[in-house]
Amino acid sequence: MKIIRTIQEMKQHASKLKKQGQAIGFVPTMGYLHEGHQQLMSKARQENDILIVSIFVNPLQFGPNEDFERYPRDEQRDIKTAEYNQVDVLFIPEKADMYPSPRSISLHVLRRSNVLCGRSREGHFEGVVTVLSKLFNITLPDKVYFGMKDAQQVAVVDALINDLNYPIEIIPVSTVRELDGLAKSSRNVYLSDQERDEANNIYKALQFGLKLVVDGEKNPDNIVQEVKDFILSNTHGKIDYVELLSYPELTPITSINEQVILATAVHFERARLIDNVVFNGQGSVSERI
Amino acid sequence: MKIIRTIQEMKQHASKLKKQGQAIGFVPTMGYLHEGHQQLMSKARQENDILIVSIFVNPLQFGPNEDFERYPRDEQRDIKTAEYNQVDVLFIPEKADMYPSPRSISLHVLRRSNVLCGRSREGHFEGVVTVLSKLFNITLPDKVYFGMKDAQQVAVVDALINDLNYPIEIIPVSTVRELDGLAKSSRNVYLSDQERDEANNIYKALQFGLKLVVDGEKNPDNIVQEVKDFILSNTHGKIDYVELLSYPELTPITSINEQVILATAVHFERARLIDNVVFNGQGSVSERI
Q1: H or E element, residue A137
Q2: How close A103 comes to chain B (CA, Å)?
Q3: Based on the domain organization, do B60 and B127 belong to the same domain?
Q4: Which residues of A touch B104 (CB under 8 A)?
Q5: How many domains, in total, are found in chain B?
Q6: For residue range B49-71, what is the model confidence (pLDDT) as tens digits?
Q7: Considering B173, B207, B240, which residue would you say is the last residue of a domain?
Q8: Among A215, A263, B104, B222, which residue's CB has the most CB atoms within a 10 Å radius?
Q9: Can you tell me the ipTM of this complex?
């Protein structure tokens, strides 16, 4: 496995690979790799000649009161994980190389952003699309892989690729879960023992909401309220949001006909956890984009 | 010469060329091709395996009171001109294909934009960087060619490429002029006979300003004032601006030491003409970026 730490070297290497006609799969990450990431790498490994993984904790996508400084980092472990997952190139750029000041160009997200996590994380998706525009141009992927755990991110990246005509296919990958259903996340390490015991109720709440649809409930407001009640009854978490929207457009709906997302974010003492399910009007789970 | 009219076909073709290891030169234009464009094509033809030229009158870079509707168009003549200049692929996309609504992502230009033409053309450079981001992703060029007549555009595109790490080299090409010095432009057709006779004084005014520097004048304000006086004395045009700034940063200067640009825009009855010279502290003309 090749470890590359400068943009210039990564660009040269990617350009060489493209000229050789190699199909490049790319998994952008903020490191602290867990099974969710390994799922992305595994799928990308199968579908491409070359697998590039990036590790970059992107300051631009953290708000001023968010956890950029204390976001978990463990480069040595990440390198071993990447090697174990047959990564060809691990790209670990420096902040100063990625964001030499001053910036002249900024990207803004006009749709799909001001709901769910985007509502309470101002500037978050601006940071996401900015760093991804850069990483796409640096690594020149044919396919990029994102976890459906952050389904809004998948929707926004889909919009970025379509709007700016990137020659890239986005591959959404199903959320990887613990045995009790809790979605894997780098932030789960921040949960207390009691919070960890309760946290599986987030996924249970979403499954409960989905069951209401399967059983014939079509009113989004009723479903959202039932899911909120479930979370409040079964955890000490504070609900940031529970929303039911069209997917991937992320617009409000009055009835469940097309593909929708039921998503939630819950604050615990030191961690904010997110999860979602995507399904159609009959309640069949599907993750088309 | 291949004429391609859909984004999808252009992307497939460009991707195939890249896999073959072909070096792609790209000349984006708004059509109505003149000798200025031919200069760009000629240079791109020499320096690359494949020459792609696009024709797209980009609505996003025209202000509400600008000349989008009556911008000159002559596709049949442009096709002949492209053929004559040994273009390999002429890409002529449709507006509806380039901008399917609604847009989800917008690009903003934070620096280099709020001076010169950017000051009076709000949103112009946003439109330029948006369409170029798209065209770059569609045509996958190794090198892109821009005329120095729009030196601010060269500076902004340079910022776009650097900030978003496009794997592209920008090649600035010297302004092509009529025998009397008037910079070639698609908009020159709008000049009356009398205006056309006077219009060469725009370039003469810039040369006059440059001579002041060669003769030892270092004060930007004095030079700007002398150039304004020259234009007002020798044309019936209305000055939009005369500015002397660092280049390509386009920041104000108090003395002429590093590379600078002396630029002007002059309104005539039905046409707004721009021109500039770029030179260093000794008054030597140079167009590094």
Answers
A1: helix A124-139
A2: 7
A3: yes
A4: 109-112, 156, 159-160, 162-163
A5: 2
A6: 999 999 999 999 998 888 788 88
A7: B173
A8: A263
A9: 0.90
